[in-house]
Design brief:
Blueprint: H1 3-12, H2 14-28, H3 32-38, H4 42-63, H5 72-86, H6 90-97, H7 104-126, H8 136-153, H9 161-176
Helix pairs in contact: 2-3, 4-5, 4-7, 5-9, 7-8
Length: 181
């Protein structure tokens, strides 16, 4: 019997879920009973982790602590760094969450993406006079998709301030036609 089939067979075993909950409880530093009390199954645990991570990311992006009167490039710099900081486990966690059964991550990510696109759209409206782009809806989509794509493909050794600066430079060049400065 192949290793894949053996693994699938073990996953179907009734005790497999219990073993997984033991691992989850150990990692969280709580009892298995606590895990059972709050989560009906491991998908619910993953759902809670996904919701927490994405909510934290959206909150960090929306905090926008750039000083008043800052240029779009400076503001993007603050937002990109805040977003990267919110991804405290780096892009690897997000890639791992994509493998969660039931498309939980994809649905949650889609909801979070819509929220962030609306936020970026409102931000672009504030800076309309600085922008070379005219379709702010499309520009917001491009900005979010580019940042998400770069972050999603970065490795831990590349997920740093240098990458953040390059992303800001790329987005600023797209939005304004000039390099961030």
């Amino acid at each position: 019997m192949s290793k894949e089939r053996q693994g699938a067979r073990r996953s179907d075993h009734p005790k497999h879920g219990f073993v997984e909950r033991i691992r989850i409880a150990e990692a969280a530093g709580v009892s298995v009973g606590t895990v059972y009390e709050y989560f009906v199954n491991k998908e619910a645990v993953f759902g809670a982790v996904i919701d927490r991570e994405l909510r934290g990311l959206v909150i960090a992006l929306q905090a926008r602590d750039a000083p008043r009167g800052a240029s779009i490039g400076e503001t993007l710099g603050h937002i990109v760094i805040a977003g990267m900081s919110a991804m405290r486990y780096g892009p690897e966690l997000y890639r791992a969450l994509e493998a969660v059964p039931g498309a939980t991550f994809r649905r949650s990510l889609g909801d979070a993406r819509v929220t962030v696109i609306h936020f970026v759209r409102a931000l672009l409206e504030e800076y309309r006079a600085e922008l070379r782009v005219s379709d702010l809806d499309l520009a917001a989509f491009v900005v979010v998709s580019a940042a998400e794509g770069i972050a999603g493909n970065a490795t831990r050794d590349r997920f740093d301030a240098r990458l953040g600066a390059e992303v800001v430079s790329l987005l600023n060049l797209y939005l304004t036609g000039t390099e961030a400065g």
